[in-house]
Amino acid sequence: MSNEWTPGTQYHPGDVVFYQADGHYYKNIQGHVAQNDWPPSNTAALWGRVPDHERPQHHERPQQRPYDSEKHDYIPPTQGGLPSGEGVNVHHEERKKNWYDLDDHRKKELEIGGGLLGGAALLAAGYAAYKSHEKGEEEKKAQTWGLQNWVHAAEARTQDYRNGARNSPATWILNHGKNIPENEAIVVGREKDWTLYICRAFYDGGIQLGKASPAFQKGAVIGYKGEEVQLPTYEILVGDMNGLRWVNTHGRLNVASLEYQPVEGGEENDGTPLYIAKAHHRSADHPGKASPKLDGAYIPYDGGEECVKSYSVLCYNQRQ
């Protein structure tokens, strides 16, 4: 069955929709609740375009479903409830702001107008949340705001990359599950009979670094506060190693001592930058993270995190 794509509708993997704006059909890759600024034509991690020769002969409009907190379905807008997000415009510069930097009037506009609905839907669709039950309401809103802004930026990077805008030897693109773009993703090493790639994801207010592989349960893992976290939706680093190099270092990272510009990595929830590390552990090279606050490279491994004192940082070939 195919439907006309409609914001506010819960979609599931395999669903086929017709997008009226460009006249093409798309097949759902990742279940989610549709919203206005995530059209199928601009969200490569959520929708795959159906080739013209496979176009359905007809399409039907989807039915709305009631919300179920366990099944994560969508609740249609009702009087006094959350609307679908229509009428709420968020400028790309505003998305760079922390939730706590917005004034109370703007926060209320975003809440009432549905500006946080996309983030809440993402959490329901499988984006990991860290101890959400222990957080206050304002902290949950801040997490949701940060999550949806990360996804919005990741979608834009992915679309630019797929459209041929490849001005850097390294680019982060959004990815889902075990379907690794093996011909594009940067390889770090091999463990047993699987290949390890570099990933990152929004988690607990920061963007944490880790490793991805088709061998993993959900596709990617990050290390956080001593634990290994499985993730189904993440960014993966693609690029060309001819324009990159691994620079050896030890202990707490001194960026100036690298002599080369590090590739953009992630950040802790306090703003501390995280850099892409490669560390040798138990006969394999593993992706991980390094920073001026960590005693070495931290890699997710065997359900936890390992600290490796001597490691390498991924840098551009140009000197600083």
UniProtKB/TrEMBL annotation:
A biological process term (GO) from this entry: carbohydrate metabolic process
The organism of origin for this protein: Mycena albidolilacea
Positions of the Chitin-binding type-3 domain: 4-47
Keyword hit for Transmembrane helix: no
GO cellular component, as recorded: extracellular region
Entry GO MF terms: carbohydrate binding; hydrolase activity, hydrolyzing O-glycosyl compounds
UniProt feature coiled coil, ranges: none
Protein name as annotated: Carbohydrate-binding module family 12 protein
UniProt-listed InterPro entries: CBM5/12, CBM_sf_5/12, DM9_repeat
Keywords carried by this UniProt record: Hydrolase
Keyword Hydrolase: yes
Disordered: annotated segments: 53-72
